[in-house]
Amino acid sequence: xxxxxxxxxxxxxxxxxxxxxxxxxxxxxxxxxxxxxxxxxxxxxxxxxxxxxxxxxxxxxxxxxxxxxxxxxxxxxxxxxxxxxxxxxxxxxxxxxxxxxxxxxxxxxxxxxxxxxxxxxxxxxxxxxxxxxxxxxxxxxxxxxxxxxxxxxxxxxxxxxxxxxxxxxxxxxxxxxxxxxxxxxxxxxxxxxxxxxxxxxxxxxxxxxxxxxxxxxxxxxxxxxxxxxxxxxxxxxxxxxxxxxxxxxxxxxxxxxxxxxxxxxxxxxxxxxxxxxxxxxxxxxxxxxxxxxxxxxxxxxxxxxxxxxxxxxxxxxxxxxxxxxxxxxxxxxxxxxxxxxxxxxxxxxxxxxxxxxxxxxxxxxxxxxxxxxxxxxxxxxxxxxxxxxxxxxxxxxxxxxxxxxxxxxxxxxxxxxxxxxxxxxxxxxxxxxxxxxxxxxxxxxxxxxxxxxxxxxxxxxxxxxxxxxxxxxxxxxxxxxxxxxxxxxxxxxxxxxxxxxxxxxxxxxxxxxxxxxxxxxxxxxxxxxxxxxxxxxxxxxxxxxxxxxxxxxxxxxxxxxxxxxxxxxxxxxxxxxxxxxxxxxxxxxxxxxxxxxxxxxxxxxxxxxxxxxxxxxxxxxxxxxxxxxxxxxxxxxxxxxxxxxxxxxxxxxxxxxxxxxxxxxxxxxxxxxxxxxxxxxxxxxxxxxxxxxxxxxx
Length: 698
Ligand SMILES: Cc1ncc(C[n+]2csc(CCOP(=O)(O)OP(=O)(O)O)c2C)c(N)n1
Ligand SMILES: [Mg+2]
Fold this sequence. Notes:
Blueprint: H1 22-41, H2 47-63, E1 78-81, H3 87-96, H4 110-114, H5 144-163, E2 175-180, H6 181-185, H7 187-199, E3 204-210, E4 213-214, E5 217-218, H8 227-234, E6 237-241, H9 247-259, E7 265-270, H10 285-288, H11 293-303, H12 317-346, H13 348-358, E8 376-381, H14 382-393, E9 400-404, H15 408-411, E10 432-434, H16 439-450, E11 455-461, H17 469-478, E12 483-487, H18 505-510, E13 516-518, H19 523-534, E14 541-544, E15 549-552, E16 569-572, E17 581-585, H20 588-602, E18 607-611, H21 615-619, H22 623-629, E19 637-640, H23 649-652, E20 657-659, H24 670-676, H25 681-691
Parallel strand pairs: 1-2, 2-3, 3-7, 6-7, 9-10, 9-11, 11-12, 12-14, 13-14, 17-18, 17-19, 19-20
Antiparallel strand pairs: 4-5, 8-15, 16-18
Helix pairs in contact: 1-2, 1-3, 1-11, 1-12, 2-3, 2-9, 2-12, 5-7, 5-16, 12-13, 14-19, 16-17, 20-25
The structure holds thiamine diphosphate (TPP) and magnesium ion.
């Protein structure tokens, strides 16, 4: 099947039946739905869908293994539209293939397409996971989708290794991602392709919309490398399709991908953005501007389409799609259901694990081996405690997998128990991932794993969270339950100096809606932090840990660490009196304020210590609890955190003192750097007294 169109066809009669065979009509339906939706919304991006329609149609109709009645089928092929601005392509596909919501209603109806980009519609500007059934991941920030696709492909390989048994292949799905020039210009795509090539992920296929156009004009302005050679260098198979309308050539490339068993595949498809629009095609103007009434007519004329018809879906178009896509997918899923039934009989334990994963539940007793740390003035670093907690949980939670960006000896994120294993090229059953020094793709892979029902974690230094903010933000937007572990959480890391000492990162991460951030104050708070995080399957979390040892607090004297689950709790109190001053802190500064509290108590001052490992969890508590912890009547307050002060005024109040960092740190041993910036018990006591009107702060 080769679909060709003259750039401008002879004008058909208005409102006659569309020209071309039925496949041409399906393709032009995709194109015209995109055109009409963008026109009606007066915004959006029809250019890419117009160019890519034959590619997407061929992939979905002839190859994608997907049951439109069960879009949550675990062994479905994954389709990622990394160039999320082309969202109308995906919405048209979901509509034309009849993908259904769990209640049987269409995932995307024709009316939904008419509501493109309107408030509350299931057809938002860019595809949003969890919002529109059939959208596998949220895309729009270029490069993230291809990044997620690597995580999805890794997940498939891992699932295959763990669960498939001879003759019982529960998992053998493939991951397809369409991407654009912008995706491949972004640095993350280089990290992603390098990692995928290294891991030899032969279940992964990227389809590159090679249209040589981006927003400012020709890609020649800024992008001149040989993409095929670049990917060959990464260890990928590459295929060139010279004309996006040549469906047979594209189909042959997909067949070549499917026959490749030792590397991922990139298919470069030469396409024309805005294909068919006589005055816009092949230009940057086709990227996003609505065509306008006249040009829409001319474009439809070029397609041999009734010029005045809008949102036209010719008879037979959806049926034609279903004959391939739907019929194949339903049969495959049906057969898979049978296989799963037999699998349940033969491997009840493993099937039980799958049921838990698919319903995002935890196994009974998953936290039974979590350690409890005895009081110890010298104590241990919270990164150490985290490593112990992780290694206590992981054997009981087999789908908890992760790794670090070349820092696991520092972040303590390596799984050390027997059988944990390494995830390596060709041997994908291990639980320890190795991202190399690639933080950005590490975050995007974590999201891809989380969207594949695994519980992923990552590890690097807190200061390098800046290198992975985009996927962290998307994890929050998607409610993807990844755990981002960050050690070396403050100037307390010492001699590596200001390049490595995070300042503004906590404030930045706390500002991400829906992201849980915990900075535990000692070993037992760290254990509780892991317990709290993993109990919430759809909430991504940042776990922020110290490099340096912190005293393990005596929990017979102070409140139990289980208070962590509420975000903030009264750790030490003025026994029988209303506190005169409240001392608040997180992480390494908790033990500092406890020391200050003891000194104040010895001087007869009634202080309260509030440990605040997680502001966001605290904010979800009811008002009564929040006021119990921070009584409004007590306005003498001191907040201590070795980071930017931004946000602390919320808890310190307008008159409270905030001991924080007001600039970058310094390279020096911790014994010098902390006092240099005012993080001493003396300074806290002084600030507390000043707050109570018994002295002045310096
Ligand atoms: C990270 C990121 N930066 C910038 C943008 C804004 N943006 C949207 S599409 C685009 C580039 C368009 O070129 P291309 O990716 O080739 O898509 P095409 O125009 O070919 O559809 C840009 C810069 C974005 N979505 N994501
Ligand atoms: Mg382009």
